[in-house]
Amino acid sequence: MELYTTQGPLAREDLGLILPHEHVFVDLGPMAAENWRDADPADVVDVMAPEIERARESGVTALVEATPEGVGRRVDVDLAVSEATDFPIVVPTGIYQEPSIPEWAREASEDELTEWLVEDLTEGVDDTGVRAAWIKVSTDDDDPTGLSADEETILRAAARAGERTGAAIGSHTLHGDVVHRQLDVVEEAGYSPERFIWIHAQADDERYHREVAERGAYVEFDWIGGDDQADGDYVDRIRRLVEAGHTDRILLSQDRGWYDPSEPDGGEQRPYTYLTETFLPTLREAGVEEATVRRITRDNPFEAYAR
Asked: What whole-number distance in Å separates Cα of residue 277 and Cα of residue 258?
């Protein structure tokens, strides 16, 4: 297995702790303004390189960029930051949720979307020479009932592209029932739930965490260090999944960074270091064994995103 990064494919022994869900560059302003198009990579490097250096000093060896089409994906920017810091960044292909799906994606057929995804995964994104490692999809935060027609088409294309390439599918999904529907779609399209990552799993009840892990998918807790949930809550959820035998299905990250071109000077950044400097010591103090911590923070993210 190899993990495709901005520094080329890397083996397990090349890497240590990996952050599986962060952002270097993401446009959270109105998509109609297209602020992401005019961003200068040099400006992003000036702001984000110090954050990458802090992450490296805290023990991080790579991070996964989680910005797809629809919120300003710029792999050339990720590459510029990577080259300036000599630090590997794992980039996605894929498309964001309603109502941010680009018009070209709505107009494309499932076959056309599949071929676009496969090209990003096998040949590289645009003219960067960087292969996407994984496929990012999403569902509407405000719709707990299911997938829109366009979201389902994108997911089916992702499953078909995954079946052809072995790439993981990570989905921003806030509702556990919708995750089950997504896993059904993935299986119907001929792909395995074991290559699916439930992004933002902490947003719904922990019974879904067990159910999704039992179906083979990864359960990602990725707002660690955020304002809404205490570290102790995350510790409890992790321990319950470990005790249930699902250690190899857990991913931990922070959803931090980032440079937002819709904000003056890229906005305010949040360091990538909370997990390593604050949360993992808390997890160890709670009695989680070092081998388990290592499995969750090193082996799991590599195995989830490598192919």
From this structure: 19
pLDDT of the chain along its 307 residues, tens only?
999 999 999 999 999 999 999 999 999 999 889 999 999 999 999 999 999 999 999 999 999 999 999 999 999 999 999 999 999 999 999 999 999 999 999 999 999 999 999 999 999 999 999 999 999 999 999 888 889 999 999 999 999 999 999 999 999 999 999 999 999 999 999 999 999 999 999 999 999 999 999 999 999 999 999 877 899 999 999 999 999 999 999 999 999 999 999 999 999 999 999 999 999 999 999 999 999 999 999 999 999 999 9
Nearest to 201 by CA among 227, 232, 180: 180
Contact between residue 226 and residue 258 where contact means Cβ atoms under 8 Å apart: no
Token couple for 15: 């890497």
The residue count of the chain comes to 307
Maximum Cα interatomic distance, the chain, rounded to a whole number of Å = 52
| Residue 157 near residue 113, CB atoms below 8 Å | yes
From start to end of the chain, where are the E strands? 3-5, 8-10, 17-22, 60-65, 89-90, 92-94, 134-138, 168-172, 196-199, 218-221, 250-252
Helices within 123-243 (DSSP H only): 149-165, 176-188, 206-214, 231-243
